[in-house]
Write a structure and sequence with these properties.
InterPro entries: AB_hydrolase_fold, Peptidase_S28. The chain is of the alpha/beta class. The chain has 2 domains: 286 residues, Rossmann fold (3-Layer(aba) Sandwich), CATH 3.40.50; 178 residues, no CATH class. Helix content is 44%, strand content 12%. The chain contains 15 helices and 12 strands. Strands 2-3-6-4-7-8-11-12 form an 8-stranded mixed sheet, sandwiched between helices. Strands 1-5 form a two-stranded antiparallel sheet. Strand 7, helix 5 and strand 8 form a beta-alpha-beta unit. The longest helix is centred in the middle third of the chain and has 40 residues.
Length: 488
């Protein structure tokens, strides 16, 4: 009877979904994974769904709503009591649920997977213009409330489809980088709404002058590569003083008229190699050029054009303050939106250390503050103390959170580093492990959407941290499992 009861619920769910959902939003339940195949293994699903979200969660008078995009994937869902995995989208367009290690976990635990696009990004903009006055509702605090309201409404919708009442499936939240911080903060602020959190490469500490970022690049680079990078920066500074126009053109960056923008662009190109676990693509040719007596500036320009602007797909427009001023909603709007969050909440100003820096000293605190003022107007600056007081920084007091970090990732200095009994944190300490390695695999550039850990120099290290994740998830999900359900 129990097996038949479960199967009956499945049929009812299938029937209810197909009957109650508009044709453009109907969901196909398939154990064969046909939707994955249709997306060439890069996404579990790209089928857009929409949720009517509150604009200002903190106002008792403002009842405006906006349409927020989300996705759901139910192929692995163990009906009716399987967990729900909430994958948090961050500072960019959320085009679907990616097929990374979360899909492995979803299959293992029989979980439904849902993902909510961050307000303002992608197709979830509350306004038709991104003028500074319209960005007042763009913050991590509002985003966390979005997740909470969505989680509650989705659970109610799930209960309706399952024809059950007053039931909560076990929820678990996931995020990488800024979404990793949101994942930890969500568990901190709404512990009753989730059984636990995976905070991968989670930048939970707002940092005003983030000199440790550059210092980590130096450590990850090693002695030879670091020396080559420092010499390259010095040579570029010298050439810029004599013929800046020709120099910028040699990097395909002639549009970056502000020198600070140009140097930030150059520094970020090096960051990408280490952040995403692929240092050899930068260090090998640069060290070789130095040993052979070749022009280091030419070697670095080749790396930027071939890899950073080529393979990686970055654009100089992301660093151009004139582009960041654009208030129209375009495919590049994420740059302006993220800088607004940087300039108001978290800073992460990646400034050059006073000594032994890799990036140019033109990328200093004044450069960042001038950018905030130039792009968004007077009075815009980040109150990092308020952010850290509100969330706790690296002293975050949330329980049942797994923090994971890559050894080469420069962002790890803004993440929790020390484990504690009620807040377990783990650091992936293998060479060639970067940002979000536990979910994405490595190296991540070129990006491997399935998270192939065989590309890591030390796959065993990734296996180890993934097993720790599974162990904690298994424990925490079982602890909050509703044992009163009759259908297991």
């Amino acid at each position: 009877m129990r097996m038949w009861s479960c199967f009956s619920v499945f049929l009812l769910l299938l029937f209810y979904t197909a009957a109650a959902t508009p044709p453009s939003q109907q969901h196909r339940f398939s154990q064969s994974g046909t939707r994955i195949a249709n997306n060439n293994n890069r996404y579990l699903t790209k089928e857009e769904l929409w949720f009517s979200q509150t604009l200002d969660h903190y106002s008792p008078y403002d009842h405006r709503k906006f349409q927020q995009r989300y996705y759901e994937f139910l192929d692995f869902f163990r009906i009716p009591d399987g967990p729900v995995f909430l994958v948090i989208c961050g500072e960019g367009s959320c085009d679907g649920i990616r097929n990374d290690y979360v899909s492995v976990l979803a299959k293992k635990f029989g979980a439904a997977v849902v993902s909510l696009e961050h307000r303002y990004y992608g197709k979830s903009s509350p306004f038709k213009s991104l003028a500074t006055e319209n960005l007042r509702y763009l913050s991590s605090k509002q985003a966390l409330f979005d997740l909470a309201v969505f989680r509650q409404n989705y659970q109610e919708s799930l209960n309706a489809r399952l024809i059950q009442t007053k039931t909560d499936n076990p929820w678990f939240v996931f995020g990488v980088s800024y979404p990793g911080a949101l994942s930890a903060w969500f568990r901190l602020k709404f512990p009753h709404l989730t059984c636990g959190s995976l905070a991968s490469s989670a930048v939970v500490l707002a940092v005003y002058d983030f000199i440790e970022f550059d210092q980590q690049i130096g450590e990850s680079a090693g002695v030879e590569c670091k020396a080559a990078l420092q010499e390259t920066t010095q040579l570029i500074e010298q050439k810029l003083a004599t013929d800046g126009k020709a120099l910028k053109a040699s990097f395909n960056a002639a549009d970056l008229e502000i020198d600070g923008d140009f140097f930030y662009f150059l520094a970020d190109a090096a960051v990408i190699a280490f952040q995403y676990g692929n240092p050899d693509i930068l260090c090998k040719p640069l060290v070789k050029a130095k040993k052979d007596g070749d022009d280091l500036v030419d070697a670095y320009a080749k790396f930027i054009k071939d890899f950073f602007l080529g393979t990686d797909g970055s654009s100089t427009q992301s660093y151009n303050q004139e582009n960041l001023k654009n208030t129209a909603i375009t495919e590049n709007s994420a740059d302006r939106l993220w800088w607004f969050q940087v300039c108001t909440e978290v800073a992460y100003f990646q400034v050059a250390p006073s000594n032994d820096s890799i990036r140019s000293h033109k990328v200093d605190t004044r450069y960042h503050l001038d950018l905030c003022k130039n792009v968004f107007g007077k009075g815009i600056y980040p109150d990092v103390d308020a952010t850290n007081i509100y969330y706790g920084g690296t002293k975050i007091a949330g329980s049942k959170i797994v923090f994971t970090n890559g050894s080469q990732d420069p962002w790890r200095r803004a993440s929790k580093q020390i484990s504690s009994p009620n807040m377990p944190s783990y650091t992936i300490t293998c060479h060639n492990c970067g940002h979000g390695t536990d979910l994405r695999g490595c190296p991540q550039s070129p990006f491997n959407i399935e998270g192939n850990d065989k590309n890591c120099t030390s796959p065993d290290a990734v296996h180890k941290v993934r097993q720790k994740i599974i162990d904690h998830m298994d424990l925490w999900l079982s602890q909050c499992q509703d044992m009163s359900r009759s259908c297991i």
